[in-house]
Each structure stands twice: as C-alpha cells, then as structure tokens.
Amino acid sequence: MDATVRAQEEGDTSRSLYKHMLPFIFSTLSSCLLLLRCAPIALNTSQPIGMASYGSASWVTLALLLFITLAATANGDELSASYYEKTCPNVQHVVRSVMASSVAAQPRMAPAVLRLFFHDCFINGCDASVLLDATPFSPSEKDVKPNASLTGYTVIDDIKSALEHDCPATVSCADVIALASRDAVALLGGPTWSVPLSRKDSRFAANPESTKKGLPSPHDNLGELVAMFSRLNLDARDMTALSGADTVGMADCMHYSDRVYGADRDEEIDPYFAQTMKQSCQGPSEAENMCYTLRTFEPSFTTGHGAQLRGKPASKHCGCPYYRNLIARRGLLTSYQTLYGGGGPQDNLVEMYSADGEAFARDFAKTMVKMGNVPPPMGMPVEVRLKCSTANY
Ligand code: HEM
C-alpha cells in the first residue's frame, strides 16, 4: 500500500478513536462536575459533598445530567439560510459590513478568511475548531504546520464581538466563518451564494496529527487530492472547482521552490513563468522569507506584498485565470499543475472552467455550500461559543 495512503488511514483511525472517546469523556466529566455543584441543592441537603454520601436521588440527577450533556452534541441537523431570521435578523448585514471595512483596511484579509473556512471544514467539519487557542489540556489546530500561516482570526473576532453585542450567545463562530468567507469571495469580485446556517462550535480541537494529515499538501498529486477531498464527500469536480479559490491571495515560496529548484522540478513548466518564480524565490535557502502573489478574482485587488503577477479577471466570457494558467503550464504549486495534463475527464473540467467563467462561478458557489455542510463528528460536544478562541467553560 502507498505510504501516503497508509499514513492517511492510520490518521483516520486515530482520529476516529479520538472522535468517539472524547465526547464520552467530556460528557462524563462535565456531568460529574455539574453533579458536584448541584447535588446538594437537588437533594436539599447541607451534607458535605462526597460520592459516598449521595443517595439514589443523586444517581437520578447524574443520569439526567448525562442525558442533557449528550443532547448538546453534534447531531447533523439540516442547515437553513433563514436560521437566524427571528433570533438575529441583522446577522448577514453585520458580517458583511465588518468584512467590508476590514478588507478595505487590509485587502489581505479576504483571501485569509476564505482559507480559514477551508482549513476549518477539512478538520472535523465546519465547527470553528480551527479558531480554538491551545489550553494546558488541548493543543490548538492553529499551531500545526499547515495552519501556521493562517491569518484572519482578528476579523472573525471583530465580527463575533459585533454579533455578541446585537444578539448575545446566538450566532456560532462556525456560521461566522461560513458567512465571512462568502462575503470575502464577493468582495474579491467572485460569485456569491446563500449560506445555509445553524452550525455549532465544537468544544475541542482535533489533535495535531489528524490536523496535519487532514489537509492537502502543495506536493500532492491528483490521486492524493481526489482521495483527500472524497473523505468529505467532495468529488473530483468539487475538488477542481474549489481549487479555483487559490486564484486569490498569496503563497510562500517554500511551497513551490522545489518546482524550480528541487525535488518536484517540473521540466515542462512554462519557461517564462519558471523565471518569474525563480525571481520571487531566490533559492531554497531563502524560501522562508519570500512571498509570491497569486492571481485575483479581480485585477484591481493587490496585496502589496512580495512579487506580483497580475492576472486577467475571471469574467463570464473569458473564464477563470487559475485554470488558464494550468493549461499554459503555469501552475504555481505541484498540487495545482497536477489538475491538468493527465488527459480524460479531469482535463475536460479544467478546460471548461478556463473557458467558461459562469460555469466556474456556478460550480464554485455550489461546492462552497457543499463543503460548508460538512458537520463535526457525531457525538462531538458542541455549543455556541461566546468568544471564538475559547470554549465556554
Ligand atoms: C486542493 C488542495 C489545496 C492545496 C494543496 C492548497 C494549498 C495552498 C497553499 C500551499 C497556499 C499558500 C499558503 C501560504 O504560503 O501561506 C494556499 C493559499 C490559499 N488557499 Fe489553498 N490549497 C488547496 C485548496 C484550497 C481551497 C479548497 C481553498 C478554499 C476554498 C483554498 C484557499 C486558499 C486561499 C484563499 C489562499 C491564499 C491565502 C492568503 O493569501 O492568506 N485553497 N493554498
């Protein structure tokens, strides 16, 4: 068996063990804690607290508390675009206006938020687990290598604060990321869509090993990407459409220097493009410090960092530049270029999106909704976090 596949399967097993054990441990612990706090009241007694002193009533309380705790776990309820209609009617407006002012001040925040959503949904579903800070008991997904370059957390915090002011303890951080990334794409000149809502926030982050293995690598080949996305029920077409998100934002040179200097060296790469890559990335040793700007949905957007390669806009008529680049052998990362050149239906998809901007916009919007519907694992304790970086208690 291929080593990567085996590693992924081992990761799946450890994650699934983790997924199944954690809710149980959490439920038991929190029920015991609640029991310690509430039992004297429930029993109407002033006796000191100690398990041995509880009568049968305490076990009834324990069972009840266990039930209540388990009820607050992920259950895969249907999402709905009108979920906050009565409880927080202004939610869409609040998210849009905070996003608009943040992106106006710092254009980099639009791609950053979009990438946050992808990295959230790929690990334990769209549950805002990527936002949780490390605690003495639990590491953070933020600190695992593929996530170390994520930004945009402050924008999500700003949106959440505004929402807590308007409708306290109502809108989940997971819904905030989903709405904000939709607005990010619109602000970049891309398509828009209606976001189904009612996600809940997981109380726990995934373990570092699962986080690392759950995210696609810039060195992945087509088969590895298809396998990675299929774990979330996203097929090759979904994967190809979603990859168009990499039209915007930036990539660090360390992710592509191998394509011009090292192990992933691509002899068929467009020579002019290879030259530009080399210029933006002076050599593998400097990889950490250099940045390369990817293309944008709209040509007017610039980040002001590093070397820039401006693209033509993704318009209805001329299609998406990301896919045109692949056909011209100008894929920045190995994982981009692998989407084209092998022949068959995969090449047809890339050719279609490169020529038909409407087809790309339609599929991208549809697939963002599909990716956004991935729930946290069954039984994961969930809540509406009051602060996105920490669980409620
Ligand atoms: C197909 C597999 C994918 C791979 C291997 C991949 C890999 C990468 C890498 C290596 C970077 C540069 C990160 C850095 O240098 O800090 C990046 C940037 C980015 N990716 Fe992807 N990506 C993939 C799919 C996606 C998807 C599905 C989305 C969203 C739906 C997405 C959104 C973005 C965005 C917006 C950026 C720019 C972030 C910024 O400028 O802050 N990517 N991606």
Automatic annotation (TrEMBL):
PANTHER family: OS06G0521900 PROTEIN (PTHR31388:SF19), PEROXIDASE 72-RELATED (PTHR31388). Removal of H(2)O(2), oxidation of toxic reductants, biosynthesis and degradation of lignin, suberization, auxin catabolism, response to environmental stresses such as wounding, pathogen attack and oxidative stress. These functions might be dependent on each isozyme/isoform in each plant tissue. Its EC number is 1.11.1.7. GO terms for cellular component: extracellular region; plant-type cell wall. Its cofactor is Ca(2+); heme b. It is found in: Secreted. The lineage of its organism: Eukaryota, Viridiplantae, Streptophyta, Embryophyta, Tracheophyta. It comes from Triticum aestivum. Substrate binds at P216. It catalyses: 2 a phenolic donor + H2O2 = 2 a phenolic radical donor + 2 H2O. Binds 2 calcium ions per subunit. Binds 1 heme b (iron(II)-protoporphyrin IX) group per subunit. The chain crosses the membrane at residues 20-39, 51-72. One of its GO terms (biological process) is hydrogen peroxide catabolic process. Residues 78-392 form the Plant heme peroxidase family profile domain. This is Peroxidase.
